Amino acid sequence: MTETPKFLIQAAHEQAIQGLIVRANWAIDHGDMDALMSCLHPDVTFVRPDGQVLQGPQAVRDAYARRDPDRLTRHLLSNVHMRWLSTCRVEAHASVLLWMGRQSSEATVSGRLAEPVQKLGEHRDVFIFYEDRWWLLQRQSEFIFFVEIFLYPTV
Question: By CB atoms within 10 Å of each CB, which of 7, 32, 61, 137 scores lowest?
Answer without folding.
Answer: 7
